[in-house]
């Protein structure tokens, strides 16, 4: 890609996210999200392959639908309450519509269907941006909404995401699809605790970005795209393979690794809130995703 075009695209990506993060007004936040969406599309289509074009089209359509819903709900909120600022109290209907729209943007179940397909059609570099940077702006909006959202909706979406994220990843051999389903499962954990403790959502999000970036960079370095290629990585780069095995296990939430900490804290917080049954269900659903992380780890250690 032309370096001038690339620098324009990367700066637009940064601008879109920063605009949303620093916005006070719903329209400004929406503009930031739009710039973000439009900037990533040329990066997805820079390899003119039918899979890449299909991925970019799917991404554009879902993001455009979610953006339209964000615009609609913020206009509805302004019509009912006469208030455009993000940090002011929001009408319950608008809050529900906004949380559904942001769930679509993030790829939370049952709005997750685009995510594995889009990641599979993109390169690992674009996949890294999609899994980390592109989630910053919607997550910031969700955290600002955290006190207005419907608790039951969040818990339902969260549990559904952890189950579907675990279930969907079990049968996959393509690494990008596995990472997409892992993203769905992690976002489920963040959503489940969002209203009860936004700080834990932020902690979980930060650690998820850290570990996912590590894995994507590792796979870019090893140049592997499916499980069969992984089994030869040990002989090529033993140190890097050992590191990525630890990152995978950390992402699955095995103690004593970092990824265990947010899950433990979230489960503890839920037990404090007397949601013991819910905590049990969400922890059991993590076993599903643990299975495919262990499968990846096993194929790396052969």
Mean pLDDT: 96
Class computed from helices, strands and strand pairing: mainly alpha
Biggest β-sheet, characterized? none
Strand content: under 5%
How many domains would you count in the coordinates? 2
Instruction: Work out the radius of gyration.
Output: 19 Å
The share of residues in helices is over 70%
Q: Secondary-structure element order, as H and E?
A: HHHHHHHHHHHHHHH
Question: What's the total count of β strands?
Answer: 0
Transmembrane segments: 59-81, 93-115, 151-171, 202-222, 234-255, 275-294
Family: Belongs to the complex I subunit 2 family.
GO cellular component, one term: mitochondrial inner membrane
Main location: mitochondrion
Description:
This protein is mainly α and 302 residues long. It has two domains: 149 residues; 139 residues. Helix 8 runs parallel beside helix 15. The radius of gyration is 19 Å and the shape is globular. The two termini are 37 Å apart. The mean pLDDT is 96.
What's the short story on this structure?
By secondary structure, the chain is an all-alpha fold.
């Amino acid at each position: 890609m032309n370096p001038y075009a690339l620098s324009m695209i990367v700066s637009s990506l940064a601008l879109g996210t920063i605009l949303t993060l620093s916005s006070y007004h719903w329209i400004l936040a929406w503009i930031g999200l739009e710039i973000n969406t439009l900037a990533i599309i040329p990066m997805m289509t820079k390899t003119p392959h039918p899979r890449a074009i299909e991925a970019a089209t799917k991404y554009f359509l879902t993001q455009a639908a979610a953006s339209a819903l964000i615009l609609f709900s913020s206009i509805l909120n302004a019509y009912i309450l006469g208030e455009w600022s993000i940090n002011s109290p929001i009408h319950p209907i608008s809050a529900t519509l906004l949380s559904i729209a942001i769930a679509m943007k993030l790829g939370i179940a049952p709005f997750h269907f685009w995510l594995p397909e889009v990641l599979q059609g993109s390169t690992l570099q674009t996949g890294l941006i999609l899994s980390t940077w592109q989630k910053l702006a919607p997550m910031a909006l969700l955290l600002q909404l955290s006190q207005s959202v419907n608790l039951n909706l969040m818990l339902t979406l969260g549990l559904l995401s952890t189950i579907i994220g675990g279930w969907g990843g079990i049968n996959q051999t393509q690494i990008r699809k596995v990472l997409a389903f892992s993203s769905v499962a992690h976002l489920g954990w963040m959503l489940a605790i969002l209203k009860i403790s936004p700080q834990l959502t932020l902690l979980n999000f930060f650690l998820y970005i850290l570990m996912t970036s590590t894995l994507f960079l590792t796979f870019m370095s090893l140049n592997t795209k499916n499980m069969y290629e992984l089994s030869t990585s040990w002989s090529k780069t033993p140190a890097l393979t050992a590191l990525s095995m630890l990152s995978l296990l950390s992402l699955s939430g095995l103690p004593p690794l970092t990824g265990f900490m947010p899950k433990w804290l979230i489960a503890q917080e839920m037990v404090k809130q007397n949601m013991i049954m819910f905590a049990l269900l969400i922890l059991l659903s993590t076993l599903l995703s643990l299975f495919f992380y262990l499968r990846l780890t096993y194929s790396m250690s052969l």
